[in-house]
Design a protein that fits this description.
Structural class: alpha+beta
Helix content: 10-25%
Largest sheet: 4 strands, antiparallel
Number of strands: 28
CATH architecture of the largest domain: 7 Propeller
Number of helices: 5
Strand order of the largest sheet: 3-2-1-28
Shape: globular
Length: 382
């Protein structure tokens, strides 16, 4: 063996031992993800030879250090290790609405999926009997199996439809205007012009009270009678949500949460700690708890806030932080589903367990090209 060759073989790439360990971990995970298929002895031999060549390239090639850095970057990506490589059954009853770049999907409790078509902005009707979604210039109401019941055409394109809790009204945006349609697809009309692009919120009950953002504040109105219940000024909401009993309206601002009563009076407010901003909040199904998704310096966490009393009782809602994009309560209120796009994971979180699932983008991709991370449209119904 020549002196130069001996020197090259004796050299170690930076952090070579740690890289080898991490590479073995990656290979193990990918092996578990594979789909079983018959393979010939020749194929196995070729795979082993290619693996050996890759290891040799890392150790002896002049570009070895660059490869080591690339492998390190691959393992520094966010996410929880030992995540399930595929979506199995949901940890609680109900069905999920999921919208990807390839269209709208319904995920059953057992983990099976059905693609309904090229729809966007999907939302459940009460009890999950129907789905409302958009498709181009159409507002579409359909069954969870995909059978279309009616369509309404709007220009500009409709977006962000919201079904009332009794199923008899739907509010949606068309450009800057807020429009209403009856649950059977009739009576489409303009309700309020030039409102803020914040999703309106229906108050639980049969009186069809809708809260929306306009003229620098929050307005709550009975859409059938055309009467205004209250106006709360001086707020710039990112999100509105009524409590399940309809007594309190949650107003989520960038750096503050407010609970407003049926007369528009603030009953309780919470200023977020310095540096934190609110991203999303949701009442638990029993109305006792608010899950708050907040962010600081690109990382987010979840806090659980007790609704009762004059002060906020706060505790951690997940034992991990990351760049979460959304959250959903399970219908029984025992689990939170967190979407983590950068990690390509969903986290199902309960007080005692965290169940991570990876490969979410590919699971909802219809083609062979790059897969975008999907959005959640609701977990319904118990």
């Amino acid at each position: 063996m020549k002196p130069l060759e001996r020197r090259l073989r004796s050299l170690q790439a930076p952090d070579e031992a740690a890289v080898a360990s991490r590479a073995w971990e990656l290979a193990s995970v990918e092996f578990e993800r594979r789909e079983p298929r018959a393979r010939s002895h020749r194929g196995r031999t070729l795979a082993i030879a290619l693996a050996a060549l890759c290891v040799a390239a890392i150790v002896i090639s002049p570009a070895g250090a660059g490869v080591v850095r690339w492998v390190g970057d691959r393992f520094d990506r966010p996410g929880l290790k030992h995540a399930k490589p595929f979506l199995g059954s949901l940890p609680a009853q109900g069905r999920l609405l999921v919208t990807s770049s390839d269209g709208l999907w319904v995920v059953q409790h057992d983990g099976s999926k059905r693609q309904l078509g090229r729809y966007a902005d999907a939302a459940w009707s009460p009890h999950g009997l129907f789905i409302v979604a958009t498709r181009g210039h159409e507002l579409v109401a359909m069954e969870p199996g995909g059978r279309v019941h009616w369509t309404v055409t709007a220009s500009p394109r409709p977006r962000a439809p919201v079904w009332s809790p009794d199923g008899f009204r739907i509010a949606y945006f068309s450009g800057p205007d807020l429009r209403l349609v009856i649950g059977n697809g009739t009576g489409d009309h303009l309700f309020a012009a030039r409102v803020a692009p914040v999703a309106p919120a229906w108050r639980p009950g049969i009186d069809h009270v809708l809260a929306f953002v306009a003229r620098g504040g929050v307005t709550a109105a009975n859409v059938d009678l055309g009467t205004t219940l209250f106006r709360a000024g001086g707020v710039r909401p990112l999100q509105l949500a009524w409590s399940p009993d309809g007594r309190l309206l949650l107003v989520v601002e960038r750096e503050r949460l407010r609970l407003v009563d049926s007369r528009g009076r603030t009953r309780k407010a919470l200023d977020l700690p310095a540096g934190f901003v609110a991203r999303r909040a949701a009442f638990s199904p029993d109305g006792e708890t608010i899950a708050l998704l907040r962010e600081r310096s690109g990382l987010s966490d979840v806090r659980l806030l007790s609704v009762r009393g004059h002060s906020w009782h706060e505790r951690a809602g997940a034992p991990v932080s990351g760049a979460f994009s959304s959250l959903e309560w399970s219908p029984d209120g025992r689990w939170l589903l967190l979407a983590w796009p950068a990690a390509d994971q969903w986290l199902f979180v309960s007080p005692a367990r965290v169940l991570p699932v990876s490969g979410i983008a590919r699971a909802f991709a219809g083609g062979a090209g790059p897969a975008a991370f999907p959005s959640l449209g609701g977990w319904c119904c118990y």
